[in-house]
Amino acid sequence: MALNDGTFSTSIFSGSISRPNVGVLEDDLVVPTDRPSEPLSERNVVFPKEHFAANAFDRTITLTRDLFNSGVLSVDYGGEFVFERVWVQPLLFALGFIVEDSTHEIKIWNAYRTKAVQTTAVSVVDQEGTDLEYPPLPDTIQVFGDTIYTLTVYQDGPPLQDTTWKLTIDGEDFEIQVTGVRVIPWFLDLNWDQSPIITYDFETVIFTTNHLKEQRRPLSDESWMELSAKFDTSAGNNRKIFNLLAYGQDKVFGLPIYTEKLSCSSIGTISLDVNEDMTYLWNLQNNASFVIIVDHDNALAEIKEIGSIAGQTINFNQNISASFDASKTYVYPAMFAIIGAYSADNLTNDFDSIKADFREFKSG
């Protein structure tokens, strides 16, 4: 559908002349299709003969603004739902885990048939971590015209994103909410002298039946993963790691699942190849939507959402932004977790050992 010239497509169903029950607009702007066709009446659709050939009711046509203005479609056809208003979509960006910069479109359509509208004001509550790109105000949108404002959400920002942008259009306020949880990549390698301990916690409760028999029942269909491990850090990174642990007390970490370590053979723009067979890696195949790409030696890490896995290739939904050396880079299924208890031991003048416990964090 081309919103600029005020056209959209609809279907005329075979049989006798009747009111169409489908009106397809742009993206989310759809007239419900479960409404039955209605008999022709003076308030419904009128089709003059010049718009149709004989027996041409079973066809698809293009309806334009002229058809409304000339009375081909009555004023009340969809008027209570589609027309004589401004559409702003979407009004909610529930982003889940925020692991990288992302851009999103806010679509605005002037569905008034006879008047232009203006965006006269844009305001925001708790903007940090987001930005909105829009034309200079006032921004005029012509009859049946449309425009797009661009929302950017950054990887850097508050731990919990809860921002509300407000657009004032034709005197009406439209509030657009942006929510999400930011994730801090964890880049330390393990001290393999002590194997990591991964457990799966199922929350249950003891239930007593009417016959005084006790049963254990689950409180959730899902389990929570827990990791307990030791990490070695060099003197140059000690202060950075201690600050990171203190900073991350109320935040979410993107943590490697170290038991499913993969070495890279090559790294592309939006995919990478590994040397190992990934078929039997349970968390990667069944329990992870993200991976974390890590160069432990250079304290470099990036979290990417998995698009697909084929053979020894992992494809991502977004481009890899950091510059990784494949010979020094490893890939792990990612676990999003909050930190529990942690402690540090001095091994030598140059190295410390950090022991930390993590518990999986589930959004929503």
In words, what does this structure look like?
With 364 residues, the protein is mainly beta. Strand 18 (262-267) and strand 19 form a beta hairpin. The longest helix is centred in the middle third of the chain and has 13 residues, at 235-247. The chain has helices at residues 65-69, 235-247, 282-287; strands at residues 8-12, 23-24, 59-63, 86-89, 92-98, 102-110, 117-125, 130-133, 139-141, 146-153, 160-169, 172-185, 197-201, 204-208, 214-218, 224-234, 252-256, 262-267, 271-274, 290-295, 300-310, 313-316, 330-346, 351-360. The model is unreliable at 1-63 (pLDDT under 50).
The helix fraction, in percent, is: under 10%
- Report on the biggest sheet: 6 strands, antiparallel, barrel
User: Which consecutive residue ranges, at least 5 long each, have pLDDT under 50?
Assistant: 1-63
Shape: globular
The count of strands amounts to: 24
Order of helices and strands: EEEHEEEEEEEEEEEEEHEEEHEEEEE
Q: How far apart are the first and last residues' alpha carbons, in Å?
A: 35 Å
How would you write the strand order of the largest sheet?
Answer: 18-19-22-21-20-23
| Amount of beta strand | over 45%
